[in-house]
Amino acid sequence: MIVGVPKEIKIEEKRVALVPGGAEALVAAGHKVLMETGAGIGSGFDDEEYSRAGVEIVADAKAVYGRSDMVLKVKEPLPVEWDMLAEGQILFTYLHLAASEPLTRALLRKKVTALAYETVETRDGSLPLLQPMSEIAGRMAPQEGAKYLEETYGGRGVLLGGVPGVPPASVAIFGAGTVGSNAARVALGMGASVTVLDIAPHRLKAIDDMYRGGIVTMFADNYNVRLALTFADLLIGAVLVHGAKAPCLISRPMLKTMKTGAVIVDVAIDQGGCAETSRPTTHDNPVYIEEGVVHYTVANMPGAVPRTATRALTLNTLPYVLAIANKGWKNAVKQDVALYRGINLVEGEITHAAVAQAFNLPHRPADSLLGGKHRL
Questions:
Q1: Is the domain defined by 2-119+306-369 classed in CATH 3.40.50.300?
Q2: Residue 233: active-site member
Q3: For a surface tag, which of 110, 116, 168, 361 has the fewest beta carbons within 10 Å of its beta carbon?
Q4: Exactly one of 31, 96, 295, 352 is catalytic; which is it?
Q5: What are the per-10-residue average pLDDT scores of the chain (376 residues)?
Q6: Is 202 annotated in the active site?
Q7: Three-state SS across 231-290?
């Protein structure tokens, strides 16, 4: 199989979908790897390292897309890349299709087979390709929130950890999954007063047991969500519905109850965001103010730490990439329930129910395209 890796073009996105060691493993397995020149520079890998691993370096993205059977990326293709895709091509990357109807329709039109990192799901419900980036985004969220609480950026002018005699900032975290639990860990370590809200009692119990009451836990009913908005200096949105659009928990009228200069770090922005006022931003212009509240809504937060993020991501993606390359995508998904669940689109058909539901489009279960039931 010919595996292609273009350079990421999302603003300030420095991650790359394959490290030299991964490329070497693919070449050793008998595959050809193409990479756009300079694709790995932002993550600390130059073309020479890839060449030593057996990679063919090509001049531009058009050459990568035009010659590859499978295209590996980190972020979803942007509009300038859509027409480079070819019918029947395999696309393996973060897609978050439920948050973008234009992207979904473009990939349907191109009739690609699209597997999304974020919906690869093991039998026990874990998300092995989303988890490492969620951990990074969760750990970054209090760090970014602390910065934008500074008065210089329109924040309340509150130090997250306070000082002796002056109380710390109050941090409310919506969601106790991977993002939320990592955000809670860092916020507590920075000295903040931390409250975590979730609808799953077992997750709240796990946090309470881990921190022995050092973090306040609250069930995320409507009353407690409204209450948390009134006392939070920093609110971290960490809600996730697998493969679907994030639930909108904060309406504009609710936002008005927050303190002037409070900060929202909406990590759920990849899936549409958890606030009515959230809209995607970029690393070079990460914040804006609505109703007196600072919004940090960068849609690729781990892209700011590419040397860490690339290694964490590719460590987990490589086994799946090798499986697809060695067996072909159909046999690979038949033999691995996690990859099966990662299928979002197959040659002009939506196979992921949550994506179809998001836009009221037809849904065709992957089983019907694989010749029978293959849920392992």
A1: no
A2: no
A3: 361
A4: 96
A5: 97 94 98 98 97 98 97 97 96 93 97 96 93 95 98 96 97 96 97 97 96 95 97 95 82 97 95 94 95 96 94 96 97 94 95 93 87 56
A6: no
A7: HCCEEEECCCCCCCCCCCCECHHHHCCCCCCCEEEEHHHHHCCCECCCCCEECCECEEEE
